[in-house]
Structure formats: C-alpha cells, structure tokens
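Sequence, please.
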C-alpha cells in the first residue's frame, strides 16, 4: 500500500490545492474547499498513487488493471514519473502559479502548471512535455488534467449514493441539457476489491465547439454539498 511522505498545500482563494508526494516521489493532486480542510481524509487502501500528470509514450506498456484497449490511463510512462521539484510564483497583481516538475524513465520532463487569479473561483491547469532525449519521441497521450480525492471526506469507504456525475448534452441550436445521475448508474463506485478500473467515456467528434456533449464534466458530493467542475479549453475531438 502507498504512503505519503510529504504534503504541499496552497490556499487559492476559497480553495486548497493539496499535493501529496508518496515514498517513491510520485505526486497526486487534490482540490477541495478551504472551509472543509479539517474534514479531508486520505484513503489508506489505495494500492497506487494516481499521478497528477497522465501520459504515454509510444511503446510504453498499458496498466495491468484490466484497461488494455480501453484507456491509456496510468501507463508505464505515468508510473515512471518522479518529482524533480516544485515552485510557487506570485505576480504583482496576486496571480499565483504552481509549477510541478516530473521526470520519466526516458529522461523527459513534464511540467504541470496550476494557476489562480485573485477574484476568480476557478483554476487553470496545463502540462508541458519536454523531450529529454537526443532522438524523436512519440507522445501518444497527454491528459488535460488528473484530479484525485473526489470526494476526500470519507476515507476508505464512501457511502453509496454520495456522488453524482454531471455532464451537459447538446445538439445543434440547443443551449444544453444538464444530466446529473449517481455514479452507480455508470458502475463507477468503488469495488469491494480495489482492482479493475471503472471507466465512463464520452465526448464529441469533429471541430464544432459543441457536438453531443459540452467539453465539461462535474462530480457532486450530495452529502457534503461540494461540487467539482472541469471544462476543457480545447473544444474539439
């Protein structure tokens, strides 16, 4: 089982960004309301750290968690990432940017950025890949973001019916229809045995800003009355 050797916490308005570093120097990212910080509990039965950067280089193995052909999540590239360092910068107008630098076993660097502007109730996240080898590498996947600890208020066992998945349906000339359903409807609840990755994939094809689904997803903790929402900046396939 994993254990965390270090925590780096940053107050960003009414939110806290919590970076958890395990004994192997892998890093998870949790975000939660500052007013609920004393209620946050990190699960102890999770076997692997869920890296805040998710990537896959061509030829890297997929995870063994029954995911072959379904997703590139937690690939061998991701599992090799190790923390190099972290830097927090604040500009004169109060804008804060936290840069987390990781390196994979091929010598390449991944810089994860999290930025917050005073007065805003949102965060911006992006990742840069820097080839560390003298030859060309083919990066076949780089996730927009990876957030852990949703919801972080229950430790190892979250009660059934706690989380709802939120998404927005649409079609041409339609403003959008909110869908909010329990995660159990998608088989996303935690298994009695923490193996076998649960997965729900949805999105759009083509270059339209919105087609079938908005580039948007949310999870709502109904018991704690806390909602996490994410929107992609790149609106395409």
């Amino acid at each position: 089982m994993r254990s965390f050797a270090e925590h780096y916490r940053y107050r960003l308005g009414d939110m806290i960004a919590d970076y958890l570093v395990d004994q192997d120097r892998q890093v998870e990212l949790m975000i939660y309301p500052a007013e609920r910080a004393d209620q946050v509990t990190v699960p102890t039965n999770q076997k692997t750290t869920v890296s805040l950067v998710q990537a896959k280089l061509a030829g890297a193995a997929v995870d063994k968690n029954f995911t072959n052909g379904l997703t590139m999540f937690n690939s061998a590239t991701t599992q090799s990432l190790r923390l190099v360092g972290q830097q927090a910068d604040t500009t004169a107008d109060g804008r804060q940017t936290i840069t987390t630098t990781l390196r994979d076993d091929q010598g390449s660097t991944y810089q994860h950025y999290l930025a917050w502007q005073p007065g805003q109730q949102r965060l911006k996240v992006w990742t840069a890949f820097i080839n560390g080898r003298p030859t060309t590498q083919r990066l076949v996947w780089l996730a927009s973001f990876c957030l852990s600890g949703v919801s972080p208020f229950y430790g190892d066992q979250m009660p059934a019916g706690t989380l709802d998945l939120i998404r927005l349906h649409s079609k041409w000339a339609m403003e959008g229809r909110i869908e909010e359903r329990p995660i159990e409807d998608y088989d996303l609840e935690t298994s009695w045995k923490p193996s076998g990755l649960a997965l729900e994939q949805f999105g759009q094809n083509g270059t339209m800003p919105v087609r079938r689904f908005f580039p948007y997803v949310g999870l709502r903790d109904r018991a704690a009355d806390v909602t996490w929402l994410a929107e992609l900046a790149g609106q395409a396939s």
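DSSP finds one helix and 14 strands in the chain.
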